Structures are given as structure tokens and as C-alpha cells.
Amino acid sequence: MILTLSHQKGGVGKSTVAWNLAVYFSGIMDTRIVDLDTQRSLTVTNALRKEHNLPSIKMIHFNTAEELAEYAAADSDDVLTIIDSGGFDSAFNRIAIIASDLLITPVSDKPFDLMGLQKYEEILKSLSVIQGETIKTHVLFNNINPAMKRFGELVDFICTSEHFELMVSILRQRVDIAHSVGEGKSIKEYRIFSKADQEMDDLIVEVKSILNIK
């Protein structure tokens, strides 16, 4: 199975979400991370994990898009590959989108995120034409102000596009998130039963349901 955190816009929280999902699923099945981010954020985070004597996660890097395509072609249900794509359009990221069993696109409530989502929709449209099927991503509200209850035109846009499906889970701004990653930990490892942990648990349950992981 391939799960990709994908958005052509950077700074939306793809790496943080990918990391927390990877740490959790590595405890119940063979899980790998493909780090396509040019900053190699998760590779650095994994190194911090080793420094804190925590079990590391298998990291995979590819030199060419063709290598990624070959890896994806050999995908199996026994292994979960989580791809942290870069915040830009590229051959690497387009292959990840096409190969994925589940796409997750984090967005915040900021005005620029609506514009970014509109541009990302154009990428999904063009790939759908090439593939001959509608490619859909699950949109995750991430880094949301805890007091925010309504999302206005962003929800309207998401619900009217055939390429987007809004996730039930919402991840809000929590101090624990930044602190946990800084130690190479998941939110649960950093502070169990916190609000951030509970919200991540909700996301994990939703992802397991979508991918039919028991």
C-alpha cells in the first residue's frame, strides 16, 4: 500500500503528518518512508530518533523518478509506504500521486491555501486525463486555530470538486506537535492523551478505515 502526503504548496504540514502516521504504523506493520522533500525533513527527524534511542523507521531515497516508478510497481498489501512529497510540482511527485492507494492533502484555514488547492486541482485534473480515471485526494484540515469552527469558502470549494474529499479528522495548532518532532518522536510518544494525541488518533482511525487496515 502506498499513502502519499501530497500538495504542490509547501508549508502545509505534509512532513509532520507523514511522520506521525509512519511512527504509528511501523508499530503494527512493515512501514517505510519515501522522503521526496528536498529538505529531507523526515530523514533528519529519523536521525534524531536514533539519538533518543528510539527504533528508527526505514527511509528510502530515489535518485530518479524512474526508480520510484519501479518501486511503486512492486507494491504489496503487506508493506505500507508513506511518501512525503515535496511542496512543488515534479515528475517524482506526479508518480507518487498516480501510484498511491491513498492521497492526503493537508490545508490550513489561510486564504493562500485556497489558492494553492485550486492550483493542485489542476494537477489532479491533468493526471486524471492521462490515467483515464478521476484521481481524488483526501483533504485534511491541518494546523487549524483551536477556536476556528467554520471554514467558509474553502469547504465550499472542496465539496464541489470531484478531485477532493474532505476528511472528518481535523488537526489543530498544538505546541506538542513542534516539540515532539524536534525530539524525533510522534505526538503519542511525546505526550499521550494530549489534545494533539487525541486528534492524531482520530486521523489514524480514519486512515485505517480508508485503507482497510485492521
Please describe what this structure looks like.
With 214 residues, the protein is an alpha/beta fold. The chain has a single domain (2-209), classed as Rossmann fold. It has helices at 14-26, 41-51, 65-73, 91-99, 111-131, 152-160, 175-182, 187-190, 195-211; strands at residues 2-5, 30-35, 58-60, 79-84, 102-107, 137-144, 164-172. Strands 3-2-4-1-5-6-7 form a 7-stranded parallel sheet, sandwiched between helices. Helix 2 (41-51) links the parallel strand 2 and strand 3. Helix 3 (65-73) packs parallel to helix 4 (91-99). The two termini are 14 Å apart. The mean pLDDT is 93. This is CobQ/CobB/MinD/ParA nucleotide binding domain-containing protein. InterPro entries: CobQ/CobB/MinD/ParA_Nub-bd_dom (IPR002586), DNA_Partitioning_ATPase (IPR050678), P-loop_NTPase (IPR027417). Residues 6-186 form the CobQ/CobB/MinD/ParA nucleotide binding domain.
Structural topology:
Elements (H helix, E strand, L loop, with lengths): L1 E4 L8 H13 L3 E6 L5 H11 L6 E3 L4 H9 L5 E6 L6 H9 L2 E6 L3 H21 L5 E8 L7 H9 L3 E9 L2 H8 L4 H4 L4 H17 L3
Parallel strand pairs: 1-4, 1-5, 2-3, 2-4, 5-6, 6-7
Helix pairs in contact: 3-4
In summary, what is this structure?
By secondary structure, this protein is an alpha/beta fold. The chain is built from 9 helices and 7 strands.
Q: Helix and strand succession?
A: EHEHEHEHEHEHEHHH
Query: Within the largest sheet, what's the order of strands?
Result: 3-2-4-1-5-6-7
Question: How far apart are the termini?
Answer: 14 Å
CATH architecture: 3-Layer(aba) Sandwich
- Total beta-strand segments: 7
What's the Cα radius of gyration? Answer: 16 Å
- Output the CATH homologous superfamily: P-loop containing nucleotide triphosphate hydrolases
The gross shape turns out to be globular
What proportion strand? 15-25%
* Biggest β-sheet strands, sense, barrel: 7 strands, parallel
Mean pLDDT: 93
Regions with little confidence, pLDDT below 50 for 5+ residues = none
What share of the residues lie within helices?
40-55%
CATH topology name, in short, is Rossmann fold
Structural class: alpha/beta
Number of helices: 9
CATH class: Alpha Beta
Total number of distinct structural domains: 1
